[in-house]
Every structure is written in structure tokens, then in C-alpha cells.
């Protein structure tokens, strides 16, 4: 993921990981295996099966009965930023409501930062995520809000993150005319950022972009060949979910306040409902209705939403524990949502090099827990359980 993480150890060509007490594959054919082994060859999984039948490889690592999962797929972060919003957090914990306006504070700090500082901050957070088992990560622009600053953010992100999302439509910059800014986001800014981004996003919410503006932004990004996702229904019910589904978005993220019609729309579409429980807690909102979405048949992903304002954590394990302990998902469901669900939201869940799954041909991303089963993620909340991590076949922890 990052130069440091990549350099943590020189990998042999192939490694057999044996002694896996419980292997979560997320592969419908393989399911959950016990006493299993996995062979990693270059950056792919080459073989999955019973430990006793494992082929030999250049190197062997016995994980001593521990649980192994696919690496976390964190499909929603905002990590190209500078500065800190501790004071805003303290005010919130003292009763102030979360308001999107806090974004402007980070925009000012980000614009003032040099390229090296911005990049170093991103790399530090990516390393922090990798050490906790995140092996595939999306990050967004959105703290630049000028052509030059958004392009710079995307260029830096593209050097390190698996997926980059253009979020020029995060907030109308202070002093700008909203309609002229939307013209820019859909025009010259989009043209400048598109070479560095695979996705575009819009914050469709009161105080950010309304339905008509969001619809324009989604259409312009799609016409430019970018995949689309939407921040929707974070601070109240609103048009975000329906807009995302109508626009064929890969995901609609937050989904904290949903009507029955929203749940139904998600259940009958391919748009993933990406839930961000650390953000709901940190902004003192209710937790998103994960159980309701899952039972209705919607595809659910869990992501960290790591950013300095509404959710300053890179811990996917925290999101999983919260989803189980407070949102009604089972451990299996929550782990799926934080791995395969995120992969689906990023359109990386199928084919050669898929992530969020352990099967032959998938990307060689493994997360070993210092625990006998994935259940310990919720049974021992807050305990750092990551024991080893392979990303693209390289041991990064
Ligand atoms: O996903 N909702 C909009 N964007 C971020 C918040 C960013 C911030 O407060 O700096 C989010 O929560």
C-alpha cells in the first residue's frame, strides 16, 4: 500500500501459510475452512485447501491455529488532508451538532500544506491502516476545492491508494456562488482530476449539494467515464439514496437515515449501501440500519470513513465490532461487509486479482488474527488482534 509497508519484508516467490485454525474465504464454494492452508505466489493466491494437502512452496509460515480472513477492504476514506479538528470534536462531545461546515477548516489547512507534508500525512495513515489489516483502500479528494488543489490531492492519492475518488463536490467553497462552483466541478475541474481518479462522488445533503446539483455532477462524471458514488442520507432523510440508485452508483455511503422506500430501492439495485459506524458514533447520530438493509436484501459494506472531522479512525475492526454489538449483524455478516462488501462497492470483487476473498486467482491479501476465530473481533472489542498481514503477496506486518 505504501512504500514503507511494501518494504517491510522482501517476499519469497511463493509462501505456504499453514496451521490456519479458521479460514474465512468469502468464496461460496469454499466457505469457512478449518485446519486450512493457503499458498501465495507472487501477488496472487495460488491454492486454498486443507493443511494436510498443502503443496510445498519457497517459504512456509505456520500460524499456529489462528484465524485468517481476507484483508479489510476500506472503501470510504478521506485521507488527503492536513491539520486536526480536536477542538471541533471536543465541542461535539459537549453537545454541539456535527455540521458539514467543519470541512472548510480542513480545506484551509490542506491548501496551506506543501505537497511533501500532504503526502507524508497520507502515507502515515495508510501505514496505520495496513498495520491493522487493511489491504485495499479507497481515498478521496475533497479538501482542495480548487482545480489546482483537487488535482494535487488526486495526484498524491493515486501514488498510494488502490482507488481514488474525485470529491470536488464536497462543499461549496466559502464565498463561491453555488451554481458557478457546480459548473466548475462538472467542467474544468473534472477534466483536470479525471486522469488520476477512477471514481467521482458528491455530498448530497442539506448544507452541501442539493438534488438537482448532485444529479448534474453524477451525470457529468459518468459521461467522463468515471464510476460514481454518492454521500447520502448522513444527517437526515433526503434524496441521496434514490439519486444514487437512479444514477447507477456503485455505492451510496452513510445511509444513516433511510425511509422504507430507500431500503426497497437499495434492495432492488446493484448499488451497495456503505455504512460508516465510526462516523455515526463520532457525530452522535443514530447507527445506520444495517440489520434492516441486510434483511431486505441490500448489499451492505462497512468502511471507516477515516477523516479528521467526522470519523478519525482507520480501524475496520472497530467498525466490525460496532456492527455486531450495536447494529445487529452477525460476525460473519460484518466481516463479509468489511471485506467482500467493500470489494463490491469498489467493483473489485470478481475476476483475476479480486480482493475481499481468498480463492485461487484472488489478490494475495491475508489478515491473520491473534485469535482462534473471527468471532473474537466482537467478543474482544478494542483489543488489537492483528497478528500478520500479507498484501499483494508481501508480508507488511
Ligand atoms: O463522509 N460527509 C461528508 N464528508 C465527510 C466528512 C468530512 C469532514 O467532516 O471533514 C464524511 O463524513
UniProtKB/TrEMBL annotation:
GO BP annotations, alphabetical order: L-histidine catabolic process to glutamate and formamide; L-histidine catabolic process to glutamate and formate
Binding note for cofactor: Binds 1 zinc or iron ion per subunit.
Keywords: Cytoplasm, Histidine metabolism, Hydrolase, Iron, Metal-binding, Zinc
Keyword Cytoplasm: yes
Top-rank taxon: Bacteria
Enzyme class label: hydrolase
Residues that bind Fe(3+): 76, 78, 231, 305
Catalyzed reaction equations: 4-imidazolone-5-propanoate + H2O = N-formimidoyl-L-glutamate
EC number: 3.5.2.7
Molecular-function GO terms, alphabetical: imidazolonepropionase activity; iron ion binding; zinc ion binding
InterPro entries per record: Amidohydro-rel, HutI, Metal-dep_hydrolase_composite, Metal_Hydrolase
Compartments where found: Cytoplasm
Positions that bind Zn(2+): 76, 78, 231, 305
Residue ranges constituting the Amidohydrolase-related domain according to the UniProt record: 68-376
Name of a matching Pfam family: Amidohydro_1
List of residues binding 4-imidazolone-5-propanoate: 85, 143, 170, 234, 310
GO terms under cellular component: cytoplasm
Pathway connected to this protein: Amino-acid degradation; L-histidine degradation into L-glutamate; N-formimidoyl-L-glutamate from L-histidine: step 3/3
Cofactor(s) required for function per UniProt: Zn(2+); Fe(3+)
Residues where N-formimidoyl-L-glutamate binds: 143, 307, 309
Family: Belongs to the metallo-dependent hydrolases superfamily. HutI family.
Function recorded in the entry: Catalyzes the hydrolytic cleavage of the carbon-nitrogen bond in imidazolone-5-propanoate to yield N-formimidoyl-L-glutamate. It is the third step in the universal histidine degradation pathway.
Protein name in the entry: Imidazolonepropionase
Gene designation per UniProt: hutI
Amino acid at each position: 500500500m505504501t512504500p514503507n509497508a511494501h518494504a517491510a519484508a522482501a517476499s519469497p516467490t511463493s509462501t505456504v501459510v499453514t496451521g490456519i485454525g479458521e479460514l474465512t474465504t468469502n468464496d461460496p464454494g469454499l466457505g469457512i475452512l478449518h485446519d486450512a492452508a493457503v499458498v501465495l505466489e507472487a501477488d496472487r493466491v495460488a491454492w486454498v485447501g486443507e493443511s494436510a494437502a498443502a503443496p510445498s512452496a519457497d517459504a512456509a509460515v505456520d500460524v499456529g491455529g489462528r484465524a485468517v480472513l481476507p484483508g479489510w477492504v476500506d472503501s470510504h476514506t478521506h485521507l488527503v488532508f492536513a491539520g486536526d479538528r480536536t477542538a471541533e470534536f471536543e465541542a461535539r462531545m459537549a453537545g454541539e451538532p456535527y455540521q458539514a461546515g467543519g470541512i472548510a477548516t480542513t480545506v484551509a489547512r490542506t491548501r496551506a500544506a506543501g505537497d511533501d507534508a500532504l503526502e507524508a500525512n497520507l502515507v502515515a495513515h495508510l501505514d496505520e491502516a495496513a498495520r491493522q489489516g487493511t489491504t485495499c483502500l479507497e481515498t478521496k479528494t475533497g479538501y482542495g476545492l480548487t482545480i489546482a488543489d483537487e488535482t494535487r490531492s488526486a495526484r498524491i492519492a493515486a501514488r498510494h491508494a488502490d482507488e481514488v475518488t474525485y470529491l470536488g463536490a464536497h462543499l461549496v467553497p466559502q464565498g463561491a456562488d453555488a451554481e458557478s462552483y457546480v459548473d466548475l466541478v462538472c467542467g474544468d475541474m473534472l477534466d483536470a482530476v479525471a486522469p488520476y481518479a477512477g471514481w467521482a462522488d458528491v455530498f448530497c445533503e442539506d448544507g452541501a449539494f442539493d438534488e438537482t446539483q448532485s444529479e448534474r455532477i453524477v451525470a457529468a462524471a459518468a459521461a467522463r467515464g468515471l464510476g460514481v458514488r454518492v454521500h447520502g442520507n448522513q444527517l437526515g432523510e433526503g434524496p441521496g439514496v434514490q439519486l444514487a440508485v437512479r444514477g447507477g452508483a456503485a455505492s451510496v455511503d452513510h445511509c444513516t437515515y433511510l425511509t422504507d422506500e430507500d431500503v426497497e430501492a437499495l434492495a432492488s439495485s446493484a448499488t451497495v449501501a456503505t455504512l460508516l459506524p465510526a462516523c455515526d458514533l463520532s457525530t452522535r447520530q443514530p447507527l445506520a440500519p444495517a440489520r434492516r438493509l441486510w434483511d431486505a436484501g441490500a448489499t451492505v459494506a462497512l468502511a471507516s470513513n477515516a477523516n479528521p472531522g467526522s470519523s478519525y479512525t482507520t480501524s475496520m475492526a472497530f467498525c466490525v465490532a460496532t456492527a455486531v454489538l450495536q447494529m445487529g449483524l452477525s460476525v460473519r455478516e460484518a466481516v463479509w461487509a468489511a471485506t467482500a462488501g467493500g470489494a463490491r462497492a469498489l467493483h473489485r470483487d470478481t475476476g483475476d486479482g479480486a480482493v475481499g476473498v481468498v480463492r485461487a486467482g484472488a489478490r494475495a491479501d491475508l489478515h491473520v488474527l491473534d485469535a482462534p476465530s473471527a468471532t473474537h473481533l466482537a467478543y474482544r472489542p478494542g483489543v488489537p488482534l492483528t497478528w500478520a498481514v500479507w498484501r499483494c503477496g508481501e508480508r507488511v506486518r
